[in-house]
Amino acid sequence: MINSQPARLSICAIICTRNEYPYLKYLLPYIQRQDIDVVIVDHGSTDQTIDYVQSKWNCPVIGLFKMPFEGSFSLSRQLQLKWKIQNLLQHHWVVHHDADEIMQHRNGRSLREAIEEADREGYNVINFDEFVFLPKPNQDLEGRNYLREAKRYYYFATEPLRLQRVFKRSISTDNPKYNGHKIFDENSRIYPKNHTLRHYIGLSYQHLVDKYMHRNFDAEDIEKGWHRNRLNIDRKNLRLPNKHPYLQSLKNSSEILKRDTPTKLHFWEWVGE
Q1: Which CATH number goes with the domain that contains 240?
Q2: Nearest CA-CA partner of 107 in 178, 43, 195, 171
Q3: I need a labelling partner for 81 at 20 to 30 A (CA). Which of 9, 68, 69, 220 fits?
Q4: Is the pLDDT of residue 112 over 80?
Q5: Strand pairing of 152-156 and 11-17?
Q6: How do the residues of the chain divide into helix, strand and coil, expressed in percent and rounded to 5?
């Protein structure tokens, strides 16, 4: 008897972490349910991140790389290590994932379904639209299922084809050169519809303060012009808005996200708009 069923498409997400346990305990099971492998690059976590990652060994974590923390956030070094890792993989597709994100099909179906659809139709790059989720001003989602409970969001859209974060491993990518967002290859075929990236940027006001107020960006990154919209963050502009024309709200977590009120600014930049 001949098995006519093709082998399932293999997919690996590479995730950089630094004290991301509140996200990982919901993100990794979400990815695991899709039969997507994960490689973790840890940037000197001091919380429960490493213990939790090791508890998920082989299901879905297949690799753990440690990058020492030298006092500053270095996206350049992270991307260089990610580049080396993706060249060691044997998977069909690679996902450049952040711990505070969920990536999925634009119709609410899974990331795997989005990738399988693109692969089936002969495409090798997938672009995403970014939807930034915010807690309410006095809401604390740390330790809670933020995937279900976070309902407020805005559509952050600064330029077309900005987040080419999923690609077939067989194409030649220069991902580190373009801050991990864009792929330039003469053989790239970008899927014609953008899929959905949910960015859970903070789980409470205090979490946002802890995450961004004490973050020093590496000089190499700054010289490249990266992180510009995060350099002037302070406690005042991190205050979560109660209402705003850009803010929309879901009735339930599975509702399709709206793209009709795009903004080029993050919420901490709205104050002086």
Answers
A1: 3.90.550
A2: 195
A3: 9
A4: yes
A5: unpaired
A6: 25, 25, 50
pLDDT at 184 > cutoff 80: no
Looking at residue 258, the DSSP 8-state letter turns out to be P
| Burial (0-12, 13-18, 19+ Cβ within 10 Å), 241 | middle
Q: What is the domain range of residue 237?
A: 11-173+190-269
Number of separate domains in the chain: 1
Model confidence at 171, pLDDT cuts 50, 70, 90, reads: confident
Query: In this structure, what token pair is assigned to residue 11?
Result: 């997919």
Contact 92, 119 (CB under 8 A): yes
Q: What pLDDT is recorded for position 174? A: 55
For position 186, what pLDDT does the model report? Answer: 75
What distance in Å separates the CA atoms of residue 86 and residue 81, rounded to the nearest whole number?
9
* Secondary structure (H, E, C), 11-58: EEEEEEECCCHHHHHHHHHHHHCCCCEEEEEECCCCCCHHHHHHHCEC
2 belongs to a structural domain: no
Minimal CA–CA distance to 103: which of 42, 164, 189?
164
Structure tokens at 107: 């119709």
* Spatial contact of 178 and 163, defined as CB atoms under 8 Å apart: no
| Residue 91 resides in a domain | yes
Strand partners, 263: 156
CB atoms within 10 A of CB 99: 19
Within a 13 Å sphere around the CA of 77, how many CA atoms are in the beta-carbon half? 18
Does 230 fall in a domain? yes
| pLDDT range class, residue 1, cuts 50, 70, 90 | very low
- Residue 62 sits at φ, ψ, to 5 deg, of -115, -5
Give the integer Cα–Cα distance in Å for 37 and 13: 6
